[in-house]
Design brief:
The protein is built from 2 helices and 4 strands, in the order E-E-H-E-E-H. It is of the alpha+beta class and about 90 residues long. Strands 1-2-4-3 form a 4-stranded antiparallel β-sheet, covered by helices on one side. The longest helix is centred in the last third of the chain and has 21 residues, at about 65-85. The radius of gyration is 13 Å and the shape is globular. The mean pLDDT is about 95.
Length: about 90
């Protein structure tokens, strides 16, 4: 996962860049990853299009959010990303 900007507010956009995957396929897999993550109950993230590419977007709303919460988000995304790649094609 690669952050795409320095956040100026509570929103961060980031790309999932699975190795060896074409940009067009990565866009499709990004949407699948977001759907799987949201269905898992681990959290909720959105997606958007930046510079013609599909990217993930997280908004941190709770002032009590700490590093452990962000780590849990990343852990959940990594687990779902592995599952997406296992079932791709």
């Amino acid at each position: 996962f690669v952050p795409l900007h320095q956040p100026e507010s509570n929103i961060l956009c980031f790309a999932w860049t699975p190795p060896g995957v074409s940009p067009a396929r990565a866009d499709d897999l990004t949407d699948l990853l977001r759907e799987r993550y949201n269905r898992s109950g681990r959290g909720f993230i959105t997606a958007t299009t930046l510079d013609g590419r599909r990217v993930l977007r997280v908004t941190v709303m709770n002032a009590r959010t700490v590093e452990a919460h962000v780590e849990k988000l990343v852990d959940g995304l990594e687990a779902e990303a592995r599952a997406v790649l296992r079932h791709a094609d």
